[in-house]
Amino acid sequence: MKKYIAIIVVIISLVANQATAQSVNLESTFSADTAKTQLSCQRVEVATKNFTLKYDYKVNGRDVLGIIVPKIYGDSTFNLSGVFVKLGDGGLKDQYVFGTWITKRFGKVKTLLELDRITSQTDKPWDCFGARISYSSFTAEFYAMALHPLVGQGLTKTDIYYRWIAFHPQHAFAAVGLLDKDYWGFVGTRNLKNFGTFSFFNYQTKTGNYWFKSQTAFGEINQDFFSLDNYLVATSYLVVPVFYYKHFSPICAKGEYSIKIEGRRTGNVSNFELMFGKSVANDFIRIAVGTNSEVKKNSIPDANAKTSVRIAPSFEAYKVWKFNGFKQTLELRYDVLIKTFSAYIITNF
Fold first, then answer.
1. Please, are residues 25 and 348 in contact by the beta-carbon 8 Å criterion?
2. How far apart are CA 198 and CA 77, in angstroms?
3. How buried is 235 (Cβ within 10 angstroms: 0-12 exposed, 13-18 middle, 19+ buried)?
4. Integer CA distances (angstroms), 342 to 86, 166, 213, 260, in order
């Protein structure tokens, strides 16, 4: 059923583009390993003057279909927006989200207030609300997810809370966040001409799992990535989960020369990767080469248990084509350690 829904949405989106759309964004994720090859995710996003239609088709997850109205009413200091999102593949467990948010500026203070209700046929409604405030070099955000209606019950200790605060002077960025009981930290540079770095760290107190990534670029750097706007987007996205996934470009897209260090522990398995990227042939293409490793500990307590270590190379490539209002971005990765090839293709017109 979900495949037919995906085809219908794509056809409607492309037909609507011919008549009303100002832009179309298509994002495709392909993966291939020793067992199968598949289109794991397909995004269709059509933007018009009055609304945006956004659809994510996922092979191994719930589809997401949404209509976003960026401006229901507004003026130079105030804006009211709305969104409707459907989560699911056409079954009784599908969830429907009705949301609205207000942005308001009071002099140098910028504020945002959001209210959402999540409904389904098989469960009681959930309510979510949140707020963001920015002033000078500080930005803070707080959200609460109540797994029940707020009216009559209010918030409880079992509800989920998300919060973070950031300090961002002219050339630096630092933030800390708390997602339920998971800790996040962020640090980076901005507004520098030939150098940029951005790192984050996550620790899950319930499981002991962690994830960190550091990305650094030299020479002609990607200013859009090493920017305050992107840092705020990344911090909010990682600390406060949203319905739509966000894709961040590979390390070789970050600058003329680039370095990535990444590590993650999930249960008794830890992965670490060191990768170097460089633009080639006057920036005709960007490539990266690295080393990926897996450290696996025996989960059974045993003095004689051995720890297995595997190491193998990994490769990435990044290429952009632009002509006559059309933009095509191709990202490729091959991981020898897990024998997996992946491709991410973005098309804008």
1. yes
2. 32
3. buried
4. 28, 34, 20, 18
Instruction: Using pLDDT thresholds of 50, 70 and 90, give the confidence band for residue 286.
Output: very high
DSSP secondary structure code for residue 292 in this structure:
E
* Category of 274 on φ-ψ map: left (φ > 0), alpha (ψ -120 to 50) or beta: beta
Neighbours of 284 (CB within 10 A): 8
Residue 136 scores a pLDDT above 70: yes
DSSP for 214-234 reads EEEEEEEE-TTTSSHHHHHHH
* Residue 136 in tokens: 């000078």
Q: How many residues does the chain have?
A: 349
Q: Are 30 and 38 in contact (CB under 8 A)?
A: yes
What's the whole-model pTM score? Answer: 0.91
- Within 10 Å of residue 228's Cβ, how many Cβ atoms? 16
Give the sign of the dihedral formed by CA 157, CA 161, CA 164, CA 165: negative
CA distance 179 to 147: 16
* For range 239-259, the mean pLDDT: 94
Torsion angle, CA of 166/150/81/64, rounded to 10 degrees? 90
pLDDT digits (tens, 9 = 90+) for 27-45: 999 999 988 899 999 999 9
